[in-house]
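Posting this for the archive.
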Amino acid sequence: MKKHSLFSFPIVLLSLFALSCSKGEDIIEDQNGLELIYYSKRNNIINIYKLNALGQEEELIIDNEHQDWWPRLSPDKKTLLWYKSPKNGDYNNYEQAELWMANADGTNQRKVIADGQYDWTAQGVADWSPDGEELVMAVTDQTGHWHIYITDANGQNPRKISQRNSLYTDPSWSPDGTRIVCTAFPKDYVGFNLFELEVHTMKTDGTDEQRLTFDEMRDHDPYWSPDGKEIAFESQWELLHCFLGKWAIRKVKVANKQTIELLKDDTANGIPRWTEDSQHLYFARTECAEYGKIVKIDRTGENMEVVISSSEHNIYDCDVVE
């Protein structure tokens, strides 16, 4: 498939374009104490790295026999989760993915959910609850549909919360831990046009599902701002440009469902991640015929700055560490 976000699903191509972002020579030095965890493809193998607050790259997960991707650090900054898939497969190979965890420095690596466990035929895009006690993820279960599941922090005791057969993707939590935001086909929609995917929220038991976006753009990877006021996400608005399509960064106001465009241009932008003060978004940006980069913008969509850029390696999807 292509992107990194759950839909990055091989099967559905779900979320964005498998952004190639690269790291390397041109790193902004003033990071205000932030660190970034990302995965990078080198010699056809994807491993996980960290850009520390000094602008230095550190190796976290190096396994040249597998692809390692989708890193997410726990709220207490002690545990890293990610997915591992076969060496000869795509990095977002959800159908053969295994969920793994390690200490934040990459030590004590252990498998958490094996390929095929719980009779799931695909799994991906796990994310931590705000208190670090649970995980939310998208899986293909015995129904043959993608559903949203919540497990304990160790991947045990899964429970399905999505209550209708749709295409549920890219789940994450509200900052108070009471709701899940994701993308899905609207209620009563019949078909498989990915441009019908819209942002939805629901309670953590799957009740009170609410639709937040209403347009003909393909939405993915919604993330709630820490102050609870807005949800940022990416939207594909043109299909074939440079094989990736054109992807905008947008946000929706939770209170009134107003959708606002933050960045919409002739590039592929995806997987926006908030800073803890809700004032900036970090995301991957790929321009036509170039490697991608990690950039940041203000909450208003202004003052874009390059954070990681290089002509040497592809870099995909970052997690912001503060």
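The domain at 6-321 is CATH 2.120.10.30 (Neuraminidase). Residues 195 and 217 are 5 Å apart (CA to CA).
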